[in-house]
Every structure is written in structure tokens, then in C-alpha cells.
Specification:
- By secondary structure, this protein is α/β, with parallel strands linked by helices.
- The protein has five domains: 153 residues, PAS domain (Beta-Lactamase, 2-Layer Sandwich), CATH 3.30.450; 130 residues, Orthogonal Bundle (Helix Hairpins), CATH 1.10.287; 157 residues, 2-Layer Sandwich (Heat Shock Protein 90); 101 residues, Response regulator (Rossmann fold); 122 residues, HPT domain (Four Helix Bundle (Hemerythrin (Met), subunit A), Up-down Bundle).
- The chain is built from 24 helices and 22 strands.
- It has a five-stranded antiparallel β-sheet. It has a five-stranded mixed β-sheet with strand order 7-9-10-12-11.
- α3 packs across α4 and α22 packs antiparallel against α23.
- It is elongated and about 200 Å long.
- The relative contact order is 0.05.
Amino acid sequence: MPRRLGIRKLILIMGLLPVLTLSLGLSTYLMYSQIQELRSMMTERAKTSIAHLAIIAEHMLEADHGNSMQEIATAALEEQAVRAVVIYNAKLEPVAQAGPRFKLPTEQISPANTEPQLIFRKDGLFILQPIFSSSTPSNVPTGWAAMQFNWQQLEIRQYQTLLIGTIFLICAIIICILLCSYINQLLTRDLNTLRQAVRRMVSGPKNFHAHIPGDDEFSEIAEELNLLNIAQQNELQELQRNIEQSNTDLRETLETVEVQNIELDLARREAVNASRIKSEFLANTSHEIRTPLNGIIGFSNILLKSELEIRQREAIETINSSANSLLTIINDILDFSKLEAGKLVLDSAPVNLREVIEDTLQILAPGATDKALELILTIQEGSPETVLSDALRLKQILTNLINNAIKFTQSGHILVNVLSNAQSANHATVTVQVSDTGIGLSKEQQKKIFKDFGQADASITRQYGGTGLGLVIVKGLIEQMGGEIGLESESGRGTTFWFTINFPVVDNAIKLRDFTTLKNNTLALYDPSFLHANSLNMLLQSWGVIVRHYSDIEHLQTDADHLVICADNHDEAASQFIARLDRSAVILSPYTHAPDENDQHYYLSKPVSHIKLFDALNRETKTTSRTKNQTYPNTRVLAVDDNPSNLHILSSFLNDLDVITTTAIDGNDALLRCAEQRFDLIFMDIQMPKLDGIETSRRIRVQGLNQGTPIIALSAYLAPENPLQLREAGINDYLSKPITEHQLNELLSNYLVEPKIDQVQRPVDIAQCLSLAKGRAALATEMLGMLLESLVDHKESLITALQHDDFERIAEINHGIKGACCYTGTPTLHGKVLALEKRLDSNDKIDDPVKAVLAAIDELLRWQNEHDLSVVFES
């Protein structure tokens, strides 16, 4: 945008430009007219002068008075502006001359011309006048008179005219400038007055009055400004009153808000306290409820082992089933309480995704089998095998989703599909989809499916049961793992729940089986179910097996390296084919078959574990579902619990396994027992009055005879708050109440099974270390490292005790080594320690067994020098 000129500049331009233009034009015109007029006057004067000279010269030429003509010529020079005079005769010969000579332009003289001739030159004006004789009338001149006039006088007059015109113009300019300056001064004064008034209105004091003398536009503007100032003062006063009123209202509002904040803070504290009390109440109530439930379930299991009448057995089975259902509801409420309070702590350990999902499917298989539903697992290529996660919570998520699918599906199948959308060197985004062919969900039902204590339809609670917390807990667990959950469904056409979690990938997980040993083997598969066959096909092809699938049993070719037959008990054609089969095969069916000892086939339950399937195909082991519990004679176990029912049930289970059980009713009683006797294993309740299980375990680890004895925590909670806290207290493992016979037998086999010494070939069994550490490489490294660090001191102490025949000290050291070996894979040392313990009990000579223990210690120390413990579990 072009910049505008100021008012003073505009006044100067408007005042000077027209005046200067008019003055300059008028002066130019006047000077030009005057110069032309002077020129004309000089020309007329020259004509008059030469005419007079011609009349005088006429008589002189006739009388031939040459001297007189010379005088006349000389007298003519006295005329102003005449420079030279020449008189010629008819022959153009000069007869008289005065002034400077000049050349007569004879070419311009015409005898026939009787009028004066004017010739204008730069140096002056030449004029020729013919001279005629009056006595002899004729058109032929008798002579010529010539005069030269200079321009000096004309130029002087011109300069005078220019000077006068210039003076006039300058005077006009000066007068205009003075007038414009005066006007500008007046305008500037008035404008400054108005400007000051405006500035005072904006930022200065408002009690002023702008005054401009006169009765013009500026004085009117000043009066308008005064009126504006008065109006502004009135508005400011009104605004001030409004502000004061608003401030008063605001102060009152702030006081009200402050009071409300105090009330809200008090309410928040009360709510937090109420939430804390509620959480503690739920936790304590859960503990109190689970404790009698433990008794109900435990005693019902004991009763079910005895001989009962049919009606009695049915009643006890109903009691057992109802108690387990109640236990499930309590577990859901407790998990929901932990999630709501933000106190649910997730563990992080290597987890094999296929094993976790297969374990979950196998647990839920009976419910699906009762409804003739197929449970199918497919893991897409590219999905990670092992990730870091909380296996317990991951199983809980899968259990809820798959159990819901079974609950709301009357026929068809449940498909669990695992795929990885994005995978890097260290992390993988894994998506798990659980699809069913059940009743489905409408759009409205989907909106409230994840709400607390809510189900898709009120009638669902009546028909299917449940608290409505399962999916809420699943959603909370997945979000705490940093993932998300969603569903896709249509009423009457099934539902697909999916969740996506970004897991850290474990690339160096130890593989206990080499699946590549089956590479390029051929396998004939009979499976009438396309989905289940596709799942098996994907698994087998990942091992490099060449699979031929048959959907008709009559077309099955048995010439392959391996034969797998999938059939249920209602498939008569498959049963007849198996009966006449003359070679061994792997039989997959919903119920585990219990063959006789001469049966050549391998029977596995659907859904099948890939480990069991691999073992069956390799013909390494032949196992059936009916296994007899192992016994543990001469094993001493301490059971600590403040509830007599729990102690009675646990003692009953242990007595069935030939275990010598000692009980303690609280932590102090347990410390006294541990100070008096060495135990092979200790079961420790966590929540006890006076001295809880964690503090009791800490004290056992620093004093008494059981510093190295494995301690197993028993908790009425679904899982301990912090597994790391238990490990720091010296607790080796934990189980959730109520404990089952299967869990107890598995745990005892891990900690009490004595390996056969003649079969031990390595000082450290890596696979056993990982098994005892629940697959956690870091924990296995830590436990083995602690054992190796203590061996040097144990060795020196054993040597000193042997030299002094201090049998009690030898027994104490040996028991400590035995306890450390129970949760590390050191079979050689473990065997030697057990042999020494038996020799001590029999009071025989102990020199050789002690030396054997020392030799095993030396072997372990040599192994330590040859291996890097930080990487041995990563290879």
C-alpha cells in the first residue's frame, strides 16, 4: 500500500505548485511578448531611419555631392543601435560609408523591388532601401541606402525583462512559502492540541479540556473530543463499578469454590480411604473365604477317593463343583479389585506362546468336549516363539476368552489364531484372535460388553451364569501390558475377540527338543475336520515334515514314515481301521485312550500338545494319561499354616505320598521347628497372624538348620503381589490355594526326586536348571551362581569338620548343599550329598562319602572355570 503524504506536505504542495505554475507561465508569456514587441519596434524604427536617409540621399545623388552624402552617412551613425551606413549608386558602387565595412548581399538586391528589404542575422539587422529620383519618374532606383543595426539594445532590454520577471517569480514564491508556513504553523498547533488531547484520553489523566480558539473545523473537533472524553469517563466509571461488583462476586465464588475444594478433598480422601478399606476388605474376605473353600475342596477330594454310595458320591461331587465355581467368582472379584486399585504387579519371564495357549486349551478341553466343540490352534508363520511376559496373566486372559467362547457356543468350533503384524529385532506385535460359532453379539450388546459387572443381556446371567467381570479383567490386564482389545461380531453368526500386545522377543531361549530331526519325514494324516487338519499341517510343516492329508479313512495310505489318525469315539470307520492296522500310529481323540501294555499305538488327547506329538513321532517315550503318583519315603516336610483345616488337608495329601509331615500353626512355631530339625521341603503360608510367611522365610534363611531348604509359599490369593519380593525373602516357588494333588505331586517331583547317580554324566544339567526355574534364564543363572559362590566355603568347612570329626557340622554343611541343589540342576553333587546324608543317618564311616562330595564340588568348580555363567543359559 503506497505511503500517504502528511497534511503539511499536502498544504505546501497545494499552496506552492499552482502558484509556481501560474507565475512561471505568466512570466514566460509576458517576457516573450515584450521581447517580440521590442523587436518589432526596432524593425519599424530601422525602416523609418533608412527611409529618411533615402530621401536625403536622393537629392545628393542627383547633385553628385559626395561630401555631403558622407556627412549624411556619418550623421546617421548617431542614430541609436545603428552600427554602419552605406550609400550606393545605381551601379551598386558605394559613394558614402560610415561605420564598419560590411559586405552587401547583392544577390538579394532586386532592382524591381521598391520596398525596403530586411535581412536578419546573428550579428544584427541589415536593411536595404532603394533610392528613386523624383525628377525622373521611373521604377529603376538611382541608388541604394544600406544600414546595419546591432541587437545590443534589444538584448539589454531582454535581460531587463528576464530580470524583472525572475524577481517577480521569486517574490511570488517567497510570499507563497510564507503563507504556507503560517498556515502549517496554525495547523500544526491545532493538530498538536488534538493529538495531546487524544493521548491524554488514551493513557493520561481524564480530567482535561481541549480548547482551540476560533470557530472552525478544528475547534469543532476539539469540542467533539471533549464530549468523547466525558462519555469515556462515564463509561470508565460504570466499568469500574461493574469490575468492583464482579470482583466482589468473584471473591464470593472463589470462597465458595475453596469451600467446595476442601469438601471435595475431604470427599476424595474419604473415597480413597473407602477404596483402600474396600480393597483390604476384599483381600481379607477373599483370604477368609478361600480358606474354608480350601477345606471344602480338599476334604471333598479326600472323600471322593474313598468308597461311597452313588448318592453320596453325587452329593460330594456337587459340593466340589460348587466350591470350585465359587472359587472362580472370588478370584474374578479379587483380580478386579487389584486392577481397580492399581496394585496388580506383572511378572516378566520367557514365555513360549504355543505352550501357554496349548496348556490353556487342554485345561478347558473337557468343557468343550462335553458340547462336541473343536478347539483349534493356528500360529501363523513369522510369529515369535518365545516372548517376555507374565505367563500366569496371559493364561488368565486366554482362559477367560476361550471359556466365554465355549460357554456361548452350542455347536461348531473355537479357533485361536496367532499372528504377528510387525516384528523387529527386539520386539514383536502379536495379535491373538479367539473366534467362535456361537450366538454372537448385536451392536448394542457390543457397547456394554466391557463394562463392570455387565453382560450383553440380562438373561445371560440366568442362562449361562457368571459375574460379568471376566472381560473387564481381561481388558484391564491387556491394557496394563500395553495392548488393546476389541471384538467383531454379528448376532447369530459368532464372535471374534482379539487382543494385540507388543512383546519383547527372546531369541536365545533354550530349546529342549530339536524339531528339525523330523525334517523331510513323510506323514500320513487322517482328519475329517478341515480346520483341525490345517492346524496340524501348519505345525508339522514348520518342523519340515512332508504331510499328506486324507479326509476319508478308507483312502489313508500307511506307507509314510509316520501315521497320525484324528478321530473321536463315534467314528466307527476309524475305530475299525485302527483295529486292523498292522503298524504303530499316533491316535488323536477328544478322550485319552487307556491302552493295555501291549498296545502299539500312541494315544494323545485333543487339543494335542506339540511337545507330546513330537515325542510320540520320535518314539522316545510312550506315555498314557494314567500315571501313578510317585512316593517319597524318608522325606521330611514342614507344613506351616494358621488354619487347621489347611494343615490337615496338606498333611493328608503328603501322607498319601509317604512323606513324613511336621506341622506348625504360625511363624514362631515354624522357627522353633526349623531350629530343632532339618527338613527336605517347607510349605509356608503367606498370611499368618503375628509373623507372616515372608518374614518367617527371611529368618529361616539366616539362622537354624534349614538355611538351604527349599521353601514353597502357599497363598490364598490368586498370585502373590510381587514374585520378586518372595525371591528376595528366600522363597523358591509359590502355589495358589487351594492346592491340588497334581500340583503337589509335580512340585515334589521337581524338588525331591533323586537322580540316578550312574546315569549322571554332566556336573550341570542346563535343562534341569531351567525347569526348576520355571523356564526363567535369569533366575536359573542367579540360583546356579549362588550355589557356585558358596561351594568354596562349603569345601573348606567340610575339610575342617572332617579333620576334627565334627559330624554335626558335616551334617549341617551337607544339608545346606542339599538345599541349594534342590533348585539347581547339579545332579552329580546332588547324588553325592544324598549318599552322604544316608551314611550320616546310619552312623557308618563317612570318610568316603565326604571325599565324594568334595570331588563333586571340585568338578563343579572346574566347570565354572570353563564356562561363562552369564551366557550359558542363552546359547
